[in-house]
Automatic annotation (TrEMBL), chain A:
InterPro entries, A to Z: Cytochrome-c3_hydrogenase_C, NADH_UbQ_OxRdtase-like_20kDa, NiFe-Hase_small_C_sf, NiFe_Hase_small_N_sf, NiFe_hydrogenase_ssu, TAT_signal
Record domain Cytochrome-c3 hydrogenase C-terminal: where: 266-342
Name of this protein: Methanophenazine-reducing hydrogenase small subunit
Cofactor(s) of this protein: [3Fe-4S] cluster; [4Fe-4S] cluster
Family under the similarity heading: Belongs to the [NiFe]/[NiFeSe] hydrogenase small subunit family.
Binding-site positions, [4Fe-4S] cluster 2: 269, 272, 292, 298
Cellular component terms (Gene Ontology): [Ni-Fe] hydrogenase complex; ferredoxin hydrogenase complex; membrane
Residues given in the record as [4Fe-4S] cluster 1 binding sites: 65, 68, 176, 224
Residue positions binding [3Fe-4S] cluster: 307, 326, 329
Gene3D superfamilies found in the cross-reference section: Cytochrome-c3 hydrogenase, C-terminal domain, NADH:ubiquinone oxidoreductase-like, 20kDa subunit
Organism: Methanimicrococcus blatticola
GO biological process: anaerobic respiration
Domain NADH:ubiquinone oxidoreductase-like 20kDa subunit: 65-237
UniProtKB/TrEMBL annotation, chain B:
Binding site for Ni(2+): 61, 64, 575
Binding residues for Mg(2+): 42, 581
InterPro entries: Ni-dep_hyd_lsu, Ni-dep_hyd_lsu_Ni_BS, NiFe-Hase_large, NiFe/NiFeSe_hydrgnase_LSU
Keyword Amino-acid biosynthesis: no
Keyword presence, ATP-binding: no
Pfam families given in the database record: NiFeSe_Hases
PROSITE patterns: NI_HGENASE_L_2
Signal peptide segment: none
The organism of origin for this protein: Methanimicrococcus blatticola
Domain of life the protein comes from: Archaea
Localisation per UniProt entry: Cell envelope
Protein name, entry field: Methanophenazine-reducing hydrogenase large subunit
CC cofactor: Fe cation; Ni(2+)
Amino acid sequence: MASEKLNMIEQFKNLDILKVDRRTFLKAVAALGATSFVSLYGNQLTEALAAFPETKVLWLHGAECTGCSESALNGSSPEFADALSELNISLVYHETLLAQQGIFVDGKLVGNSELNGEILLKELVAAGGYILVVEGSIGNGPDGTGKINMIGTHPFKKIYEDAAKNANAIIALGTCATYGGITVTDSDVKKYCDFMGVNQTENKKGGMNAVLGINKPVINLPGCPAHPDWFFLTVAAVLLGKIDLNNLEGVLDGDGRPKVFYPPQNTLHDNCPRRGFYDRGVLDERFAEGGCLWKVGCKAPYVHADCALRKWNNGTSLCMQAGGPCIACVEPIFPNGSMPFYVERESAGVLFGVNIGTVAALAIGAAVVAAGVHAVRRVNKEK
Amino acid sequence: MVKVTVDPLTRIEGHMKVSAEVDSSGLITSAQSGGMLFRGFERMLQGKDPRDASMHVARICGVCPISHSMTATNALDDLYGVAESVPQNALAVRNFIQAANTIASHATHIYILFGPDLANPRYRDVLTGSTLSLGATGQAVWNELLGRFAPLSYKLDGKAIPVGTSYLNAIPEKKRLQEAIALFGGKMPHQAVTVAGGVTCTPGLGEITKSAAIYLKVMEFVQNYTLGVPLDTWILNTAQAKSPDAAVKFVTDHLASLISKSSGNDFSRENGWKDVEFFAAFGSELVGEKILGLPASLRLDKLGGYQDPSKISFLSYGSFYDSTKDGYNPESPTGERFLTSGVVSGNLKFEDLDTTKITESIQCAFYEDDTPSRHPYDGTTVPVSKAEQINLEAGPTEKYSWLKAPRYNGIPAEVGPLARMIVAQDPLVTGLAKAFADNGMSPANVYTRVLARMQETAILAHKIVDFLNDIDPAKKFAEPLDLRAAKEGRGMGIWEAPRGALGHWISTDKSGKTKNYQAIVPSTWNLGPRDENGIPSPVEQALVGNAISGVDNVGGADYTNPVAILHVGRSYDPCVACAIHTIDATGKNAPRDYELF
């Protein structure tokens, strides 16, 4: 057993994790178990970065629910604390986890960075040289003031601006940070709050970085929440130089996501555990029947993410396996384009804001045939 | 008078600010609590398919997402008129995932959010400094505090401190519990299965046995780290004790026996001092110093109490359905749920829950309305129109928070594990509460709040097996809906999140779409601002009279390390993202272009 594993380690040793095709990557991860996979690279990292012993990660929380932090803590292979130590990451700032808090006496910052988080943050930002992780969207409202979200007397917008300027790279974690996500759900207060993603808001490129004139390498890791593997393996790849921050184009898709986790050529539907029911036409019209969830609103045929292979919570399950229709939480259009969640797409008329016929026309590869079939049916119906 | 402000109060969910006026003797004379982020959640649901609420509002909070989707689902069960027919299986699955989420959330609070404050340098100074001269005992207690509860990336005097053993080992257990939830819920956070009429999953024996295996694994941690007596023994002698006095006596006897074998100042886990025992003895002056005769304690029982019992009450909506039969009553009458609903006054008198007595005040919150208070079914919320009106430095008679101020019969109510345990009359927690009251102290304080959270964790860890047992894979898991039932209807969902009473209220228009959606969440109850009568919220009351540096300010008050604010604020397990969201009855959104019927 041990020697078998060693052989596999040899075999995958030179794997360039974000440049191999998805199947090889997943095969490698599955065969080795992500722990050995990461520790394998972790060892290389320790050697390679001997002169650079520690990578600082500065984690900011904007308009968020802390679900992505919770999800990171759910990391299995690598587990959260292991990943930090094996990748030699120093989590220098994280509001939910660290000891410090902002402390003011008569309006003035007091104490030192061991107790006062505001002083710590100032010191860290001044020193620079960190990877900035952003969880939650960034509020621009009302009227561009950013006062919709205040932290320690400053709008979060300003805190983000300062931290982003001195960052080596930015990881937007979760759909709120990447595209606005749940915080940009259509409503009559949407404009008032004016929440933005780091580099993109819904389908519109630019995000808060365009407002602030920030030009830094950004990697988007959407998901509600983001999968812990997407985060830790991306960080690992960056640290190992497998992702070249100065040349992200080849590794990221048009929405800034690593293609290896959000494959452009495949959809979630391809590997759905209920796919067989779809193929046989067992399309449930009620919940808890065990069949395909298409008719109760599943969006998986339009969604690019490897959930069905990776699964969630230590490979336990995923939404569709538990009978819940995919709500497209990794897509820039989430949730406006995927609501109503429980209505069959064709009945909803539009798909992610685009006419369903247009999607069919754009559909490429075998993966989207499913969507195509439905679109064709719909087009026929319309005739 | 000095103004001490903690902003942001970290190690909570969301963005919160607490400021306190402190007099020259180092005592807090008044306090203000503010929520710092507005997301506008309920407005987002207007004009949408009501069924979307359950998945959408889960995103209010990633720490307790089950509670939000569960409460929304309860409101939808009520709206569609299916509450009485939700299959037993669905009730059991909902109970199981809620119980696992509550246990995980409590563990996160105890070990990762609250615990690190026990390693605050203030306790090093008190325990090992010259003021109290506690010698080897003080040093031993400090070593345990630091060794168990130090958080990630912690430094003292420039020296990196290793992560605490309890802290570090709790993370995998939290994760494991999330895996048990994912077996039924698909994923965590933000599970996919709670829908009006039941659940979408159809777990079989595989899922049930696997979750049982996970449970046993988690219990290993509880045995090794948390509790020094077998869980069954603990429950039998506390939660199921004959009287509150008997429960308290069991615990104090148990602690006394530990003390008798710790003459060499060995307070280690190996010597029987698991985290519950350690906290129970050293957390309280009354229990530790006065009853057990220990030379020192952290005196957390002298922080976070209420001075005026007429201005506080304890509220629980009731949690965990009777999953031995189909259906449930959405009104949650007294005694129906495993942890019953009810309201207990500041003087510890019980009354039945009456949800018509709930109102929310916007007097000191950044919203506009022509009347300061409304019942949630009629709730309106219009955020102040101009940016300059968001003045976070405003005083206590102005608008200073994004949180509204909920009241029960006009009185603020504490919600959360302490309130649930008092309302459900858990013998241990009620016994302790009475012991504090008999000694002229507030029954609610930082110590009882944390101990109640530990006790509830034990109770649920004991009960959760029954919920698993109630699942019969051969029977159905969901009842179909008649969507027409939602035309011009309304529904109420009341439930208990880990942090306390959670209510959602929905009403629909004649096309069956959501017209109004209102949520009143635990942290709004606990951490809101003042109301139109100037009555402060629970946390604002609980800070008054506290010694700013804790431990009776021994050695002098230190405004730069306001331990009292940190402990009291965090003792409520704040979830501020939850607490801020608004509703507007006007329904300005254009209806979406799809047909519901």
